[in-house]
Amino acid sequence: PLNAQQRIALLTDEGTFKEVDALLESVDTLKFEGVASYTEKLTASKAKTGLKDAIVCGLAKLKGIPYALGVMDFRFLGASMGAVVGEKVTRLVELATAKKLPLVIVTASGGARMYEGMISLMQMAKTSAALERHQEQGLSYIVVMTHPTTAGVTASFASLGDLIVAEPEALIGFAGPRVIKDTTQAHLPEGFQTAEFLLKKGLIDRIIDRKNLRDELALCLEYFTFCANSKGDLKKKASK
Asked: What's the pTM?
């Protein structure tokens, strides 16, 4: 696994990443009590990771191409999606839309954050709606699925990319294979919910080894940027 800082270093030109919404923090709205309180878990995750929550968002360049980047960090409560993760993703999408930039989100998540109940599930619709508005502007969105990407994140913004790529052998799915097998009593095929299995089924478009990810992502950004600019030029000519 790579943490958020390592991912950002891998996928950006040195010194170009400018974080946004860095101070947003989760709160225990529902006063969740378990073996440990939600507040205690948040405090422990902040101390362990140095992060405020499970995603880092900002603007950057890769091989000189400007784009918006969000990176999830599984160390922070399994990169579960609560109100802050959903809000940061939504704000990042809206920023990319306003600045007419391509968007990349690197996913790794156990799904919706159970400590926030229905509030966490609302983030699925909110992030998806923002991405729809981004798409309506003819702007590109690339998802990089890493191990594991599951549940509510998979069922929302992780599966909505114009281009969806994954690292080799990443676990990708909604419910875990053990839960599905116990619930349905069905025999699951070999390799079920791996990136390789889902590539064959058409959920993802490409598997990219980490050592090639920087170059291939830059190539995709260059292609999408060229296409967007070409459409803009054609519209200008048509209007004249």
From this structure: 0.89
